[in-house]
Amino acid sequence: RRAHHAAGAMNIVLIGMMGSAKSSVGRILATKMHRRHLDLDSIIEEQCGLDIPTIFARFGEPYFRRLEAGAMFEVGNFSLPAIISLGGGAILNAGAMETLKLTGKVVYLEATPEHLLLRLEKSAQKRPLLEGAPDRLLRLTAILTARRSRYEHYADLVIKTDAKDSVDIAGEIIRWWETHARGF
Ligand code: S3P
Question: What is the pLDDT of residues 37-80, one digit of tens each?
């Protein structure tokens, strides 16, 4: 416990696979908790003037990860407390993730590949890592298998999100926060 971060004044950082509802849950949390919402993918798109699929197509994933890590270090320096929705692969940026974790609590929105796919099929946003995959379920399963231990490693709270809507998920996080924030 660090004295300079008063209990309720810590960030809430949402992690999880693409399609795990990090952005919509983040928006709802920010409204209900009267906090600022910082959405990493949107920040990167604004800074670049390009959307995520275009960044991947023109410059490749390693370049995107560098932009993402930079944006993660930046939001870590913003004024507390905020709700921060990260992109699904942000946990691959170990240094930036460790730094961001120091500013608050990390919530992992866990979902099975089947439910992720259902949500992604309703989403207007393109996910470059799924484009061109002959079997999207298989691709999601492979990505989750590769990342699962990192999501779990950073998480202070894991929420199972299958078949839950964003309002319910946000409600669970708020109840957890209200029960535990004093002890953080
Ligand atoms: C990615 C997830 C995306 C976006 C990019 C890469 C990933 O964010 O950052 O397409 O590596 O899982 P969402 O999780 O918001 O879809």
Answer: 999 999 999 999 999 999 999 999 999 999 999 999 999 988 77
Tokens coding 87 = 């992109």
Residue type, 27: R
Kindly give the parts of the chain with pLDDT less than 70.
1-8
Our answer on whether the CB atom of 140 is closer than 6 Å to any ligand 1 atom is no
**What is the b/e burial string over 34-62, where b = at least 16 CB atoms within 10 angstroms of the residue's CB?**
ebebbbbbbbbbeebebbbeebbeeeeee
pLDDT at residue 181, as a whole number: 78
For ligand 1, whether the C-beta of 129 sits within 6 Å is yes
Tell me the chain's radius of gyration from C-alpha atoms.
Answer: 16
Tokens encoding 123: 């989403």
Quick one: pLDDT at residue 7? 53
Ligand 1 binding pocket includes 128 (Cβ within 6 Å): yes
Instruction: Annotate 58-91 with DSSP letters as a single string.
Output: HH-HHHHHHHHHHHHHHHHTSPSPEEEE--TTGG
